[in-house]
Every structure is written in structure tokens, then in C-alpha cells.
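Trying the structure run again after the queue cleared.
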Amino acid sequence: MENMQNRKPKKITFLLKDECKILNWLISFEFFFTIKLGTFAFCFAQNQGWNKKKCKDMSDQFTTTDLNLLNESIFRLIGKDWMLIAAGNKESYNMMTASWGGCGILWNKPVAFIFVRPQRYTLEFLEKHDHFTLNFFDPSYRKTLNLLGTKSGREINKMEVDGMKAIEINRDTIGFENASLILECKKVYADKLKPENFIDPSFLDHYPRRDYHIIYYGEIINALKKV
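Done. C-alpha cells:
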């Protein structure tokens, strides 16, 4: 009897030690999990705040404009002043200067159409993303536009060109803070020009390398004008 009574407290002590170990482990895990969760929540909140701030900054610089109220000549904007076609997101994008293209009404929608040769680096971004933008600048950017039209994104990092500040229009495309007008377009149709479809064969002189343009039609879903 005496031996049995002596064993019982030892067993209880043993169990209590194990329970204490488990309890300490649970407390440590809970503390670790709370810290991790808190860190994630803080980072998420910071990121959301950054996005809101970025959108706010953009709304301070541009205002949404009714396409019917635009007074600019599209012939001058594209053919004389040139436009900058951009595709990609804030993390990775490319752009190219163009003076061929146009805007109008098609399928009862306001559309823009652009022409891109198959060797252009911007084509890879146009294929990957559902949106693109047409960016128009004042004459002081002529030299920069010439650079962006004659140099490929494979030769220079266009994301680091001086004076060009990209802004996120939405998660799928970017525009430029320096632009006076941005047309945001959603791709709706694409095709490649075919030499046999040229009614006037003299136009084939534009393709000595037979690098026929890919044409993209985009519905203009937003027009942003510099405030």
C-alpha cells in the first residue's frame, strides 16, 4: 500500500511535466502564428494604401473625358505628332512610337487600330495582355519619341528612358504621366496583313522585307486628359 501510494504522485508529476511541455509548445506556436499574421496584415494594409495613393495621384493629374468632346485632330495627333503605343503592366512593359493607325466607329463601338511589325518587341506585350494604351505628348517630347521609335526594347531598357514616367491605368496596362492624352483600349480583333489582299500592289513597296504588319483593333474604354 505504501509503495503504491508513493508511485501515484510520481505518475502525476510525470503527466504534469508532459502537459506543461505541450502547453508551452502551444503558447510558442500561437505567439509565432500571431506575429506572422500580424506582419502579413500590416504588409497587406501598406500595399493597399500604396495602391490607393497611386490611384489618387493619377486622378489628380488626369480626368476622364468624353470622346465626343475631344477637339484634337486624330490625323495630326497620329500622323504629325506621333503616338506612343504601350502594353504591359507596371512590373514589365514596353512601348513604341507609331505614326500609322487611326480611330473611328466600328461594331457600334469607338475603336482605335494600330499596326505593329512582327519583329517589334512591343508585339510580345500586345500578345500577352488584353489592353494597350495610345499616349500623346506635346512637341517637347519629339526627341524622346524618335528614340522610342527607332530603338528596340531588346537594345535598350525603355522602362528607364529619361523623362518617361509610367503610371498604372489598371492591373493590365500602363500609361505615361507625361502624356497630354491617353486612350485606354481593350483588344477586340487582330489579324496579319496579307500581300495578296492589297488591291494596289504599289503599297507593297513598304514591305521590302515582307514583314507585314499585325493590325490590332481595340475598343476605346477610357480617355484620360491631362488636367
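Confidence is low (pLDDT under 50) at residues 1-16, 31-57. Worth checking whether this holds up in the mutant runs.
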